[in-house]
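Standup notes
- DV: blocked on the single-chain target, sequence here:
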Amino acid sequence: MPIAELNGVDLYYETTGTGERLVLTHGSWTDGSGWAPAVGALGERFEVVTWDRRGHSRSRTGPGPGSRDEDAADLAALVEHLGGPVHLVGSSYGSVVVLTLVARRPDLAASAVAHEPPLLDLLDGTTDPATAGAIAAVEQEIASVLALIDAGEHRRAAEQFIDHVAVGPGTWARFPEPWQATLEGNAPTFLDEQRDPTSRSIDTAALAAAAVPLMLTCGTEGPEWYGAVIAELSRLVPAARVEAIAGAGHVPHVTHTERWAATLLAFHEQLTPATPEEAR
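- DV (later): unblocked, structure below
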């Protein structure tokens, strides 16, 4: 069980497979084990690295509330510890972390894939009534989730987040108990994320200027506001490739693993092959 002491925090990570290095960054509430369904398929092509972000499960918390800047700095330190540049993949809030790293340290990224980053600030001032209504509804749900966390109702908060913010009604009940326990245990980290004023925005100018191949993905069956974020992000970063995962929602690496992995592999097959030195 590798532990790296980086930026004053012990970070847990695991490595599987051989090939070019691919680092997977998980979203809110969960941890690196959430990538388990996809690691086998990707491990035939890559050396796959999963990790727990600070404050999540097997990684330590920092001295104060966690922030997007700390997560991005941790990812940068992990890449440097492992040897970069590397290929990066992020899911949900993990995509915000990945995109932040690409914008700030493009030298560490050989490529990047971001699935449905919750960058709600990109939709500020939208004139589309449907999008505005969806944002108002999700903001209300998030406020309710935060109130439950504040009250110590971590399991209820996790259930409400999964069913009414991230995925859809009835999803929580289909999760196995170990997944539910992980989400419950990591509830305080969501509180940190939401109270970080930078967590919903990204430096799109720096992202567009980074010479890093980028793919943005979204599911066709999840909450519509994710698609609106992807559309706006692709407008601001026109070089980014956009792919929709048919039939999937917010966690396609779990629900539609083969389709998600095929989309990822197709993107990488179009990249210029890296030499062993460049890949590590």
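- Follow-up: The two ends are 21 Å apart (CA to CA).
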